[in-house]
């Protein structure tokens, strides 16, 4: 597993499926800033429609249909995630704690979703909504230091000193 943060604001994404899980995944995409999602509910996309996206999410679709869609996606360089079926996943969704620009992601690589949820609940208590403001404050200060010509190593040291001075961690 290789953790990355993916900016999906303009990335073309297809969501295949209907029902509660698909609605939940659609809401998750919206919270993450997805701006280009095509929804396929009631029908499956064809190969050309799959080729036109970069991510294909499949939820509550018969396994044989999901397998065919995943194979088409992979043949066209499209990353695919089939909900609750690791065999057809190129990537996984993690539990997350989101506080503005601060994103803390938790994964057990599917070993224990219950553990990921428990860790998320614990971190949610430790990192309250005030962390959105803290993150904004650090970003503004960092931008000012960069604009003043400080090197990346200086900005890192200054940021760590600010965090310690303010008692944020």
Order of helices and strands: EHEHEHEEEHHH
Low-confidence runs of at least 5 consecutive residues: none
Shape: elongated
Helix fraction bin: 40-55%
Quote the average pLDDT. Answer: 94
Alpha carbon gap, first and last residue: 28 Å
Which structural category fits the helices and strands?
A: alpha/beta
So, the CATH homologous superfamily of the largest domain? Answer: NAD(P)-binding Rossmann-like Domain
CATH class of the largest domain: Alpha Beta
How many domains in all? 3
CATH architecture of the largest domain: 3-Layer(aba) Sandwich
The total count of helices amounts to 6
**Main sheet summary:** 4 strands, parallel
Structure description:
Helix 5 packs antiparallel against helix 6. The protein has helices spanning 20-31, 47-51, 63-75, 113-126, 130-147, 152-166; strands at residues 13-16, 37-40, 55-58, 79-82, 95-99, 102-106. It folds into three domains: 13-88, Rossmann fold, CATH 3.40.50; 95-126, no CATH class; 130-166. The relative contact order is 0.10. The strands form two sheets. Strands 2-1-3-4 form a four-stranded parallel sheet, with helices on both faces. Strands 5-6 form a two-stranded antiparallel sheet. With 169 residues, the chain is an alpha/beta fold. The mean pLDDT is 94. The protein contains six helices and six strands. It is elongated.
Blueprint (SSEs and pairs):
Elements: E1 13-16, H1 20-31, E2 37-40, H2 47-51, E3 55-58, H3 63-75, E4 79-82, E5 95-99, E6 102-106, H4 113-126, H5 130-147, H6 152-166
Parallel strand pairs: 1-2, 1-3, 3-4
Antiparallel strand pairs: 5-6
């Amino acid at each position: 597993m290789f953790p990355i943060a993916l900016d999906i604001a303009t990335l073309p994404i297809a969501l295949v499926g209907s029902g509660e899980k698909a609605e939940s995944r659609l809401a998750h995409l919206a919270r993450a800033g997805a701006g280009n999602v095509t929804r396929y509910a009631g029908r499956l996309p064809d190969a050309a429609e799959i080729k036109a996206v970069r991510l294909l999410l499949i939820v509550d679709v018969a396994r044989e249909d999901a397998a065919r869609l995943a194979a088409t996606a992979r043949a066209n360089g499209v990353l695919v995630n089939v909900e609750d079926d690791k065999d057809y996943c190129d990537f996984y969704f993690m539990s997350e704690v989101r506080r503005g620009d601060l994103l803390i992601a938790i994964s057990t690589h599917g070993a224990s979703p219950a553990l990921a949820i428990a860790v998320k609940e614990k971190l949610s208590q430790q990192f309250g909504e005030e962390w959105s403001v803290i993150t904004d404050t650090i970003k503004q200060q960092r931008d000012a230091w960069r604009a003043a010509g400080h090197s990346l190593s200086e900005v890192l040291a200054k940021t760590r000193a600010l965090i310690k001075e303010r008692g944020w961690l």
